[in-house]
UniProtKB/TrEMBL annotation:
Family matches, as Pfam families: Nitroreductase
InterPro entries assigned to the protein according to its UniProt record, in alphabetical order: Nitroreductase, Nitroreductase-like, Nitroreductase/BluB
Domain of life: Bacteria
Coiled coil: none
Name used for this protein in its record: Nitroreductase
UniProt key word Cell inner membrane: no
Length: 223
């Protein structure tokens, strides 16, 4: 399956429903080998990715699910996911996303338990048979975190070229100790995010979130 670059970009979205169809190892190797060409300042390549499938992923999902079921507190965050107070227009965009996401699931804003159950699907990788966990060295600065973002976007677009979908998940950072039990990463690494990978379950309803008009995010300065 070959997609035009524009089609790959516009068809990429955070899929939250996957089939159990296995993702071939050679496909993942092909994607990650190509993604290694993502740009990074001075070619530092500050990402460290772990790909988990089969028994280890099943065990990780099991352990994470047990923590969810027992109400075990989240691990302390090693980075701030969002500023404590989001100003406009970011606050409105985040609120709109939440409304669209939970409305598609038939969940009312006030139904906190239902929202928690929906969020818990993160730690089952939404049923995906493969997951990627992306780490970065603790010594890296903001520019290198930006490099990691470019790497992950490259991975996601290449997955689309292979007919696959993904869902990047910072949510895994709050169960980072459980992930570490399976992966045993070096202490100098911080877990940035997980990413569910697989074939989309087309029977799962979803709402495609919109994007801001071009003039809200882009300024053309012309002579």
């Amino acid at each position: 399956m070959i997609l035009d670059v524009y089609e790959a970009v516009t068809s990429r979205r955070a899929v939250r429903g996957f089939t159990d169809r296995p993702v071939p190892r050679q496909v993942l190797e092909r994607v990650l080998s190509a993604a290694a060409w993502a740009p990074s300042g001075s070619n530092l390549q500050p990402w460290r990715a772990y790909v988990v499938t089969g028994g280890p992923l099943t065990e990780l999902k099991k352990r994470a699910g047990e923590r969810v079921a027992s109400g075990d507190p989240w691990d302390e965050r090693e980075y701030e996911m969002y500023p404590p107070a989001l100003k406009s227009p970011y606050h409105e965009r985040r609120s709109a996303f939440g409304h669209e996401r939970y409305s598609a699931l038939g969940i009312e804003r006030e139904d906190w338990e239902a929202r928690q159950r929906a969020a818990a699907a993160n730690w089952d990788c939404f049923g995906a048979p493969a997951a990627l966990f992306c780490y970065i060295d603790r010594d890296m600065g903001r520019p290198q975190w930006s490099d990691v973002g470019m790497y992950l976007q490259t991975v996601m677009l290449l997955l689309r070229a292979e007919g696959l979908h993904s869902c990047p998940q910072m949510a895994w950072s709050v169960y980072r100790r459980t992930v570490a039990e399976i992966l045993s990463p070096p202490d100098e690494l911080i877990l940035f995010c997980g990413m569910s990978i697989g074939f989309e379950d087309v029977t799962v309803d979803y709402a495609r979130t919109g994007r801001a008009p071009l003039d809200e995010t882009v300024t053309f300065v012309e002579g």
